[in-house]
Amino acid sequence: MIPSRFRVLFFCLLLAGLARAEDAPAKPDALKLAQQVHDIFEAKCLECHGPELPRPKGKFGYVLDLKRIADNPKMIVRGEPDGSDLYDMVLHDEMPGEDAMVPPLSAAEKEIVKKWIEAGAPHELPAGAVAAAPVVAAPAAIPEMSFAKKAVRWVGRFHPVSTHFPVALMYVAVLAEMLGWWTRRESWLATVRFLIVLAALGGITTAGLGWVNASFTSYVGQSAAVLVWHRWLGTFTAVWMTACAGLSVISECEEGSAARRRFRGALLVGALLVGVSGFLGSALIFGLDHYAWK
């Protein structure tokens, strides 16, 4: 005779299994849903995140690998579209980016992606998936970007090249400061003042171009977080460089004075900030491990 407590436990487990079976989509529905999402990603995301690209945006080059996407908690939270970064970017038309050659997802396509995540992000595709027809029979026309917007986007693309100017000036200013401290010559201190003022002007320009450039790009997962840090730290660095320039101009900062020591400390901190900001910028292209010894 089976004890009553075991019978109760058995029935509880049975009910839980039935409830889970009701929540999970039927196999044919899951296959269809996965195929629809695969086709959407193929039509709208392959340009920037295709596996054949040597440098896909955000190091996300596996957009057609649904299993890998679903297994990445930084992109997908199974059953929770609102907690999934990928759906959030799709929902708010952040991906595809404005520089893509395809239009954003339609309301129907966004709903399919949402249902896919709610269903647990199934990844199995039906037989003959490669030859399957795309979800949308007639793709929507790509909205024409205005001349002003194109001009702004074009200007923003000068951000990467503009970074070399303030970075170089900042580190040369540190070198000149060390030479001034070593030789005690006023000429070196005047050179530092000249360099740091130019570096601050370049830093402000670079930070502004960075904000413009980032508004026309799209990153997902870890790269999205790196972009946030890069933007705000880069902006703070530009402000810090401006403060250093102010210290060098407002005060004479004679060698050996307390003002000079404060300026020298601020200059070294600024050089560190420039280095970290530059590292994060490079990580957007090459990944956070691009300095790893391999």
Notes on the protein architecture:
- Helix content is 64%, strand content 0%.
- The protein is mainly alpha-helical and 294 residues long.
- The chain has two domains: 22-131, no CATH class; 147-286.
- It is elongated, with a radius of gyration of 27 Å.
- The model is unreliable at 13-24 and 130-140 (pLDDT under 50).
Please render the helix and strand layout as text:
Elements: H1 4-23, H2 27-44, H3 46-49, H4 66-70, H5 85-91, H6 107-118, H7 147-156, H8 159-162, H9 164-183, H10 186-214, H11 222-250, H12 258-286
Helix pairs in contact: 2-6, 7-10, 9-10, 9-12, 10-11, 11-12
Helix content estimate? 55-70%
Cα-to-Cα separation, first versus last residue:
65 Å
Rg, Cα atoms, Å: 27 Å
Which spans of ≥5 residues are poorly predicted at pLDDT below 50?
A: 13-24, 130-140
By DSSP (H or I, 4+ residues per run), the number of helices equals 12
SSE arrangement, N to C? HHHHHHHHHHHH
How many distinct folded domains?
Answer: 2
Report the count of strand segments: 0
Give the percentage of residues in beta strands: under 5%
Oligomeric state of the chains in view: single chain
Report the principal-axis shape: elongated
Mean pLDDT: 78
Q: The biggest beta sheet, please?
A: none
Classify the secondary structure makeup into a structural class: mainly alpha
Based on the model shown, name its key terms:
294 residues, single chain, mainly alpha, elongated, 64% helix
TL;DR of this structure?
The chain is mainly alpha-helical and 294 residues long. 64% of the residues lie in helices and 0% in strands.
